[in-house]
Structure formats: structure tokens, C-alpha cells
Amino acid sequence: MEIxxxxxxxxxGRSAATKGAGLIRKAIEDKGSANIILATGASQFDxxxxxxxxxIDWSVVRAFHLDEYIGLPVAHPASFRKYLKxxxxxIVSPMEFHFVNGExxxxxxCARLGRIIHHHPIDVAFVGIGENGHLAFNDPPADFETExxxxxxxxxxxxxxxxxxxxWFPSLEDVPRKAISMAIxxxxxxxxxxxxxxxxxxxxxxxxxxxxxxxxxxxxxxxxNHKTVWLYLYKDSASLLSFKQSKLL
Length: 249
Hints:
- It contains seven helices and eleven strands.
- The radius of gyration is 17 Å and the shape is globular.
- The strands form two sheets. An eight-stranded parallel beta sheet has the order 5-3-2-6-9-10-1-11, sandwiched between helices.
- Strand 2, helix 2 (45-51) and strand 3 form a beta-alpha-beta unit.
- The chain is α/β, with parallel strands linked by helices.
């Protein structure tokens, strides 16, 4: 794992996007197309703004959606489909974008997405880390063992409070309790992973992810078992780290 600490949020987003774009171009050069995973949330704003401006042949890029609430209409301001349509899909028009539909039968939707992604190994995954250490919507204790690519999950209160705190919902009761999430093993199958964590409120999760045990209780800690992860931190999100194995931008 390479850890990069930025002095500003825009600097973090630019560095993560530039690295990810280079990996996408390399995949296209090697095999004629690329498969990517995109996350959502406040942690991805700056990265996506830069990524969509990169010189990439998006007509040969296939994108997969990381997670989505169950039962939330696509027109809702907190819909992750809405987020990615507006900030990515309508801007770059990729070859394919496989969204998670939270408004249909969730078990069938997990199976549908699983069949598709099985045929398209992921080259680059763009992810974040939650305040409770979650990876995608895999809250603690996360399932590290399931072979299903997408699973139905119950969101814990810490996760739901984060969504409210970021301004996506007016109250905790408005935050859905269920979601469809890409599973841990599926994320870990990605050839390369770009993880962006820009917020001070995630400093404790970052510290536990990097300095605690690899454990389902800190789902993002599993990233330490992956061979090629680039972790982009803001100086505030890195503020609780005790080690110095990082590169200051």
C-alpha cells in the first residue's frame, strides 16, 4: 500500500484522479478496454471533478456502481445513481454503466449484477472509507467470506448518522436502513484500488484501518491485504497516524 498525504482536499482529489486515470489508460493500452468501480459520497467530489476531465477514451470503459440504498427513488438528492449520473455518466458517456437499482427486488438485483461483473474483471476501483471503517456499505462486522459479488446489507447507526451528517438526509429516520453493496471479496478482486479519504471526521477510522488488526470490525483494514492500493489522505484525516511511512504532497 502506498500512502499519500495531501495538504488540501483539491490536491488529494487531483492526485487520486491522475493516478487512477493513468491506470485506466494502461488497461486500455493492454487489452483494449477497462473496467472500473466508482464510489460516491463527499469523499469522491474532488476526485471525480478531475477524473472526468482526463484524456481517456471513455467509449471503451465499463463502469460498475459500488452501492445504493434500497427503496430510495433515483430522483432523491441522496440517490447514488443520481450522484453518478450527474457527476460522471452524463459527462463522459462510458461504453456501459451498470448502476445498482435499489427500487427493484434486491436479491434479484444482486444476482443480476453478479452475473455481469463476473465476466468483467475490474481494473481500477475508486473507493473511500466510512467513519465506522466501512468499505462500500459493508459496515462492521463485515462479511469477508461471501463469494457473492453484491449483497443486501443492514446499515448500522454510525453509517446512517454519517449520511445525515454529510447533508444527504434531514434526519436519521430519513436514512434508509437497507442497501445493496458490492461485497468485500469482489472489491478485493480489483487489480488496482484508489482510496480517497479527505475528512478529519474519518481520522480515527484511518488510524484503525492502518494501525489496528485486519478485522471485519474495521472493514477497510482488509485493504492492507491487497497488493496495489493507493491511499490518498488529507493531512487532517491522517492526523492520528503514528507512523511516517507516507509521502507528503
